[in-house]
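Q: what does this look like with FE2/S2 (inorganic) cluster bound?
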Amino acid sequence: MAEQSTVTFVITRQDSPDASPYKETFEIPYKTNMNVISGLMEIQRNPVNADGENTSPVQWDMNCLEEVCGACSMVINGTARQSCAALVDDLEQPIHLEPMSTFPVIRDLFVDREQMFDALKQVKAWIPIDGTHDLGPGPRMPEKKRQWAYELSKCMSCGVCLEACPNVNDKSDFIGRACPQSAFVQCPSTGEMNASERLDGLMKMEASQAAANAQNCVQVCPKGIPLTTSIAAMNRATNIQAFKNFFGSDEAH
Ligand code: SF4
Ligand code: FES
């Protein structure tokens, strides 16, 4: 790559949740190995746009800075991904930054992912451990199941797969099912005790079987999670649960 002294960011900004979005361009000093977040930090330090006008500092969310928490996700040059893991040297310029469209914008690139976490609460995507510390080791898990659970456990609830999914829109509540955490907690032996309750929560959400065939989410997932396989597994499990509910039995696992 040719030597460069500045980096150009074109940022889609929004001053409040109800305000209209607009674009603002920034030229910032280039530094070796800089990532998108370090560029945003430079704008925050010196909020002057490419026309030399003072402006408000750009807002975004972040936490771990090592592609673990998912908070810094945004659309970078048209693809949703983590901005802490996006190296400027790997990006075509100007670098376009937009908030993810699946979630409401709080300000600029900062979105509200609460609806995804609410959906995960609805499907009880966790394993209760209160009162289990003195029960001793749980049953051994078959190696194949352990490997499957490990893959699903890598999910950081970043929401990038939802941005890519054609079945997620403002009329669908597919949002919780797309996240494989629900499948993950079904998997380990400790999670199976709440399986029926969790599947009932999943069934309350309208979900399209077609999603299992849409591969977009698999391609964008930064953790390489086999999403379509996990969604298909959840679809199978919810179908079995529907039969069990219909016949009033909780035995047919
Ligand atoms: S499955 Fe992948 S893309 Fe989707 S929320 Fe989890 S880590 Fe992010
Ligand atoms: S800040 Fe946590 S994934 Fe980027």
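The chain has two domains: 6-111, 114-252. The longest strand covers residues 6-13.
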